[in-house]
Amino acid sequence: MKFKNKLSAILASVVLMASACDSFLDVNENPNNPEDAPISGLMTNSTYETALNIFRGGSATSNYVQYLASPNPGSSSDIMDPSDFSGTWFSLYNVMTDLDVIIKKSEENGANHYKGAAQILMALNLGMTVDFFGDVPFSQSFNFETVTPAYDDDQELYRRVLELLDEGIANLQGQTSISMGNDDFIYQGNVANWIKFGNTLKARFLLHTKGTSAYSESELLAAVNAGFTSSNDDASVSFFEQRFNPWAQVAINNSNLLLGGWISEQFVEALDGTSYPTVDPRLPLMIGTTDEGEFVGTVNGAGRGNAPEQGARSTLIPGQFYTSTQSPILIATFAELKFIEAEAALQNDRARAYSAYLAGIEAHMDMLGVADAEKASYLADPSVSMGAANLTLADIMKEKWVALFLHPETWNDARRFDYSYKNMTLPENLNPDLNGQYIRRLAYPDSEVSRNGDNVPSVTLLDRIWWNQ
Amino acid sequence: MKNSYKSALLFLIGFLACISLYAQQTVSGIVTAKEDGAPLPGVSIVIQGTSTGVVSDIDGKYSISVPNTQAVLVFSFIGFETQRVPVGNRSTLDVSLATETSNLDEFIVTAFGISQEKKALGYAAQSINADEITKTRQPNVVNALQGQVAGVQVTNSGGAPGQSARIIIRGINSLDPSADNQPLFVVDGVPVDNSTIESNGTPRGMSNRIADINPNDIESMSVLKGAAATALYGVRAANGAVIITTKKGKSGQIRVDFNSSLGFDNLAKLPELQDQFGQGFSGVRNDSSFWPSWGANIAEENDPNYVYQDNWNRAFNTGMQFDNSLSVSGGNEVATFYGSFGRLDQEGIIPFSTWDRTSAKLSGTVKASEKFNFSGSFNYTNSGGNRVPHDRFLERMMYWSETTDVRDYINPDGTMKTYGNTNPIYDARFATYEDNVNRIIGNINLNYSPTEWLTFSYRLGMDNYSDSRTEITPGPMGIDGEVPLSSTGFLEETRINSRDITSNFYITLKKQWNSDWNTSLRLGNDVFERKFDRVTATGTNFVIPGFYNLNNTTQIFASQGKSIRRLVGFYGDLMVDYKNFLFLNITGRNDISSTLPKNNNSFFYPSVNLGYVFSENFDLPSWVTFGKLRASWAQVGKDTNPHILGATFVSPGVFPLNGQVGFSRNSTFGDPNLRPETTTSVEFGTQFAFFNNRASLDVTYYKSNAADQIIPVPISDATGFSSYITNAGEIENRGFEIVLGGTPIERGDFRWDVTANLTTNQNEIKAIREGIDQIVVGSQFGYAGSRVTMILKEGQAYGNIYGSSYIRPGAPEGTEELNRDLPVLIGANGFPVRTGNQLILGNAVPKFFGGLRNNFSYKGLEFSFLIDFRAGLEQYDQFGNFLSAFGKQKDSERRNDFVVFPGILADGSQNTKEVWLGQGVGPDGVNYGAGYWRNYYRTTSENFVKDASFIKLRNVTLAYNLQPNLLERTPFRTARISVAANNIILYTPWDGFDPESFSAGAGGNAVGFTGLGFPGVQSLFFTLNLGL
């Protein structure tokens, strides 16, 4: 029967459909994101994002250390209100996640240099996270055995940071199956510099522990000796035509009246001869002037008062050392290392401390391109070259504060130094919960409070992290 | 393999097309009302057991072809009793219908566009007709459902032109914060896309895609609520389905209908604002201050340059919409057609917000023979507009000085006129985001009945759209002293292409075994595919100012997102009818989805439902006209989104840099062992009609459990991922739906009809997967620790809002819920002490909602109103948080007062300390810093989580239909003029903008966060309908 034929044809086509199903439905492979990525691509992003993490940290803390001040009164960054740093937290862990992948992958294929560099960057990002927040998750991170990782003790984590640096240096000193190249945005594959960088970071983190029983001066000075030998070794990422330096962007925005990057009165007065006897020749190379060519800062927490948006206050301006579109973000510098050395040696080797102190100033001035004559005249001033016998921690801290402009490391210094920079005062409209004291840590981010709330330690902004007790 | 599938389909189509034609018999007649003998236009005449039918014309005349002399014609019309008349050998069949008040015997369009007698349904379903749809003049058909259907909650995401509206049936069924809990939309038997794709950056209030459908083309909408009603549509209808039937041509004279409507929108509600203090800080006037209203007392200042500008009333325009549509329809016994054009132009209340829609539709049916008929339709829509950054607009309004005219926003050279802050109107005008959607929806239906008991049906549907979006933020013009919107400028070109194809083949077997038993079996195969591709190119830093082309930017980044999802389903549906009072329906379906892991991607789910019309068996009191019981049990499976399994890597958009492409691990991890979700629902209902159908009552109890929910659980970034997609939990929804109808008065030409519906909903998170303590649905910013988060925890209800609060010493240890009745702890400084501990401050899911419609008619005059309400919910008022940060709320007029905060001190004694509310040093010599509102009020979430209930006059309409004696003197068949008003808030304790607007678009579940979204509007419409 004709009809039966038709019916069986239909049934046949239904069967055909069913058998075709398997391949018809096999379309779920991700067309947008690959399942694997090369370690070189991961290194590119990790070096780039680490530099941005330095910027993010600097951006979070520059008002606390009074490099910058808000043009608006009562701004939360000035008055040390609790702010939500979920974004910064994510960025820190995002880089650490990728570094963990690099470490595991390079272990499998013997790419020891990648592994070593990744360990150094891991130490840096983890150390920064601890310095901001204190106890943070790490030992239960990245292995995905729990979605609510426990918080590790901050002192324990410091041990891990130093271990990672030692392991990283050792791996970089060994053989590798694959060498780094232009995928490394920090050193373009220069392994010797990576080793110095590892040692410099070791010195930085050891210095944080100075007030604790874990501190070893000899270990620190050994790291200094193996660290940067000149500013040519500095760890930095230069920015791109395609992507401007983020501080440059702040300056460009401000020049277009999207306000930001206003300089604290504290910083201006430290360099313009008000707080200290000398006028610092670096000032015009770091920040802009008013329309009248003067340096006028903004009082933290007070806002700009009746001053207009432009022309009456010093701000970051485009095109200077820190604010050119392709300026580097400095991760660690020779200048910083010299000040670390100065502080470490101050107690037992004043001569070494003093010469390191002067070398630190000089390195920073050279970096900015201060004219030789101006540099010489500044260094000749008795308030600067007070001699080894008269050198104090305050002198070192002040010069380090200037040399690490916009760098988050300064907040660590400030907390260790109890914010006792000369003439530094609490911001106006200070957060009343701080009871007239300076902020000692960042609040845990909202994202952690809502996602991992049971593990988040209960702390106030006045609770100090382990090395700052 | 794919080809063989396609060729099989082609074969099928070809096969079905080659059927010979048969002759048929035509019956015609006139339908009149029994009461007065007047002809009845609009009566539906359907051949029993088929979906074939016609409608009587203005004179009550009809004409229909019937297959044979055994055919039975069913005459039905709202307000009249349905009659079934066997045709026999007659060619003329005049029928007079008796009035009834309830429409219990009404047919309802269910799955696959099959018209079913409501009486036979074992589950709750409700429909609304064309009249009720177009009465509110809503350009978006989703809004037309507002308050009209029990169990259906429609929420406007805001009042922007074309902005999405969200529809939820019987509560939120998914724990997935980003899950689209909305029902499947089906137009003429073919599912269509109703997704909302928000903009990448600041929210722009994009449309849900069903907005592309012209409501004037719709004949009726049925809402299928439970899983029972939707088992046949499979996974995509797990949240219910809205079945839209479009208008069809009717045999007889050619008809031309013209509708024109002009509407005006205004801000529905404004928060209470202070008007006493101007720009500045600490009570000091400063005309260039960032702070818009912490300055001096305006009256004391007494300066014409420092006066309150009433910006909030003046920043918004009167919105306008102009909607015109023209349709032509007609046909004969063999073929019918319907064609329409529609054009809607809309301007929103935020300046420069626009949306327009142009639509054209052509559909036709051909009855080639008694055995073979086919139909098809083609719908083209072009829609889009300029989507203003509404969230940012209100944020900038917030920052804008209350003593500077916001309307005076532009300098003669085109730069922004400002004292420093960005002017919201300038931003709305120049920071544009335009979308342009071209969409084609088409379908073809073929039905072949080789014998009386067997029908083969095939439907092929396509829904294809391209969405082309351009976002422009101008950079500096290079004019001295200008304040640009961006220092580099920004251009983003987005191209979205989406194509849905649905193929559905089914066989229907019908058998009348004897006079008692009647069965119908349907077996089918359903295939769905969605291909989606989105390409975005972003350029920044314009070389030539004002020339907006990617070639003119120095920094260009591109990204692409593609997806493909395929589903294959096989299903069966058996209906058994015993003596027309007992109805049993059993369904089963197996779906295979491309999105799940291969070993878990096939899943079967059954359903069974029973309807029992007991009034036909028992002797009930004479005032009970009709009584029925319903019960159903159903399961439905659900798959997930495509391409989410496993861990992947992404290349961040910033690369390449220096020729290097970086990679980073994707922060989302999809469980490789994902299983399909299963929702099991149980429903019991009863339906009564009383007093000869003058009153009716329908009560339904429902309970649904959605288990193995696939949820992207936000997890600690420290794990290496931020989001983990897994089978994470189970949610239960239960409640009652009550529909009450009646005709309290019917006397002569006067008639009053009432319909009321009420829905209750309770839900509970039954389980969350081990290892996950809680699921964060969403969170919204609040200043200085007042951020709120919607968190799901086992044993709690969906929608709890967590945030910071004032310390209440009497609260039991470990309590999670804030008890606002306890006294607040007051600190030594005299101010309340806050805690960052996250407590439940409220719940955002309404416990009750419903509507009440009243229709009055007298001759040609009609008056109707629809009231809807919701109650038992709280929302976070972000707007209030901002107001208190900027000193704009009414309450801040107290800023120079001293108060004693009620509460207790740490030692338990009552607080008696007097404090000043202002900023800086108070009259008492104490320095109060930034002041009470900034330091103690805005920092605490509990101040902003508030009751968001409302009662709204959703619609009130007054219409006049020209009477026949007048119409005779005009060329028109019908003429109607009406005036309608929408969305008039009658009552709400909420003191922000319209509490109905929420921040997330229609796609998201974080409904508890209102605030800076496009404020809701109220509207007034004038409409003219003419028929030729």
TrEMBL record, chain A:
Protein source organism: Algoriphagus ornithinivorans
Signal peptide: 1-20
InterPro entries linked: Lipocalin_CS, SusD-like_2, TPR-like_helical_dom_sf
UniProt cross-references to Pfam families, sorted A to Z: SusD-like_2
Keywords (A to Z) from UniProt: Signal
Highest taxon in the source lineage: Bacteria
Protein name as it appears in the record: Starch-binding associating with outer membrane
UniProtKB/TrEMBL annotation, chain B:
Keyword Transport attached: yes
Superkingdom: Bacteria
Cross-referenced PROSITE patterns: PROKAR_LIPOPROTEIN (PS51257), TONB_DEPENDENT_REC_3 (PS52016)
Chain ranges of the TonB-dependent receptor plug domain: 119-241
Protein's cellular compartments: Cell outer membrane
Membrane topology, record value: Multi-pass membrane protein
Residues making up the signal peptide according to the UniProt record: 1-23
GO cellular component: cell outer membrane
Pfam families assigned to the protein according to its UniProt record, in alphabetical order: CarbopepD_reg_2, Plug
Family of this protein: Belongs to the TonB-dependent receptor family.
Annotated protein name in UniProt: TonB-linked outer membrane protein, SusC/RagA family
Species of the source: Algoriphagus ornithinivorans
